[in-house]
Amino acid sequence: MKTIKYTIIIIIFILSSSCSKSDDTPVIRGFFPTQIQKTDYSDSNRNRTYTIAYNSQNQITEITEIAVTGESLTKTFTYSSGLLMNISVSNNINSETTTYEYIYNSSALLTSIIETNNTATYSYAVSYDSTSNSYSLNDSGIVMTLFLDDENSPIEFELSPTLSFTIITDNESSGAFKNVKNQIAIQLTYNFIEGINFCFFHHKQINNIDFGTTNLNVINSRDSNNNIRTVNYNNTTTGQTVYGYVITYSERNL
Question: In b/e form, how buried is each residue of 168-184, taking b as 16+ CB within 10 angstroms?
């Protein structure tokens, strides 16, 4: 009986020791944007508030865009095997919905985007160039190309043949979305339907957006946790502030 008793005590000790060790494992935390307030200084009707939700893998699952009129657009994101497969867009005004479906090849490279709304379906071919690390989207002969850095964040945009701009980043300073894995599907879709707002999704601090004839100088300020708190886009020609952003974060396990 003593042998059994001592055996039980030893087992309990081992179990309690192993639990103690696992409890001592440090939990790594990181900050994630949960709200972005945008001010358009040329037209207050274009002011927006964006709220952002995440899943347990820290992937974006929902972005709601709220206009000053109260109208809102909600984009719902679904994933499979770590890749974004679908964005569904709905609003609070009517029953109209739009979906974006993403098709990948066996190497997990995006090959097409299928847009479906209440009345029609459109398909956009997407091609990847490994030499320049760029993705191109073809919209009926109009080609939109995103050039990416080594973290697959955008560094240059080209809309052939009419428009191009370069995103100049600070490689030593992190961006607002430093803890969110880049998805080229998000980059392309948001640039396609949101314009310059796609610059939100960057791992690095953006310092300047160069349009060739006009530059936007980007002024960032940071909070006590070294997160980007405010962003102002200043036109270097006129000296005027074009857009302003205020970013709110929540802390999550990494």
Answer: bbeeeebbbbbbbebbb
The C-alpha R_g of the chain, in whole angstroms, comes to: 23
Nearest to 51 by CA among 32, 71, 36: 36
Look up the pTM and report it.
0.85
C-alpha dist (Å) from residue 208 to 14, 37, 171, 203: 58, 20, 13, 15
125-156 pLDDT tens trace? 999 999 999 999 988 888 889 999 888 888 88
Answer whether residue 2 is part of any domain: no
61: CATH? 2.40.160
Residue-wise pLDDT tens digits, 83-102: 999 999 999 988 889 999 99
> For residue 38, is it within any domain?
yes
Residue 108 lies in a domain: yes
Candidates 125, 121, 189, 186; CA nearest to 152 is: 186
Asked whether residue 229 is domain-assigned, the answer is: yes
